[in-house]
Amino acid sequence: MSICDCLREPASTDRRTQAGKNRAVTRERRLGAMPRSRVERTLATAPPEALFVLSAISQYIGAAIAVTVFDDVEPQTVAWFRVIGASVALLAISPGFHRNWTRRDLIGAAIFGVATASMNLFFYLAIDRVDLGKSVAIEFLGPIAVAAATTRNARNAVALMLAVTGVVTLGGVELGDNALGVVFILISSALWAAYIVVGSRVAQVRDGVAGLGVGLAIGTLFLTPVGAPWSGPVWLSPTLLLLCCATGVFSNAIGYGIDQYVLRRVPIRRFSVLLAALPVTAVIIGWIALDQRPSGLDLAGIALVLVGVAVQERDEIQAVPEPS
User: The pTM is what?
Assistant: First the structure.
């Protein structure tokens, strides 16, 4: 039984079953309707590969900012402010976000938010110890597991193998004495898998980014016991406060917000392989912003990832259009 299956409530009567079907059709129609703004239209029609590049750049600009403040602020506190900044930004652009929540939808958003916030926490604890590019490459084990579980034909299997080989090449083996960092990134990897599976459900039942915003607001509360105790320097420094919240805007509000639109359009299998672009982007951002130079082997790994992403099928989820 999948995580999403656990979130579904059994219908005890025919009336409840029909009501559930009616809700599903309403949601499908709403999600299949033409987006209202130019940005939403772009997110709904642009090639998913292009959206992933934009998402990855935004996410790891946020991560690079976070690394620069680790000397002044504990990683767990930066992660907490990341989630705070993202939830505030997302809810600010989601009018009426508090309306029409069912118990099942709210539970799903809560699980999604806690998994995402915890993923951010362990990722920051890891990149405080391990290079950004190598951390993301190891973290990609989670999406690989999801992609492997949902791959059904030879073409997609080849694409997955190419992406995996590239990511393993990027990850390398020279981790030195960073065993604790590897443990943290493996935990983050498992949470990344949960982010994909549960995030796909949240994307389908709520339009826009309201589901993500509500989930991260719940995730903020979850991280408060580990993030708040060391937050004093941030509250006393407008610069640190701005930088910490900027990590949330770049990494979560923009990066994960784009993910929500992509998850409405492509199957989980394709989404998971597309995520291979993130370790590539992390290496490039780490090189430019943090002077973490890639080797020739790293560049070979990048090439394999790009070929794997190009080879896979470009199937999309078909939404039910609004009746005319």
Answer: 0.75
